Amino acid sequence: MNAPRPVTALAFTMAALCAVATALTAVWKVSVHCTVACAFVAVLSCAYDAEGPWPLTAAPLVALIGWSRVRLRAHTVAQVMVGCLLGTAGAAFLWHLASAVAA
């Protein structure tokens, strides 16, 4: 739709990541909140080449989200950690893949 390449890469990355997280949650209750929060930080890091304050500013929010999910007894620590791992690694991989395809 004539969107800038980074916007297209972001849309693909988040849609694919949410699909994977949803499929995993059907089998084991992965924290999608943490997946999306970590993906946000990972995409910020990739988009800005880990420069600037944005990734470091957003990272503490991920810790608060993870803590709240465990505190509310919505997830175990393992489910939060898997969500964070999936969000970080998945978003970084998909961002680079989508950026290469969009280029």
TrEMBL record:
It comes from the Bacteria. Residues 1-25 form the signal peptide. InterPro entries: PAP2/HPO (IPR000326), PAP2/HPO_sf (IPR036938). Keywords: Signal. It holds the Pfam family PAP2. Residues 2-98 form the Phosphatidic acid phosphatase type 2/haloperoxidase domain. This is Phosphatase PAP2 family protein. It comes from Streptomyces galilaeus.
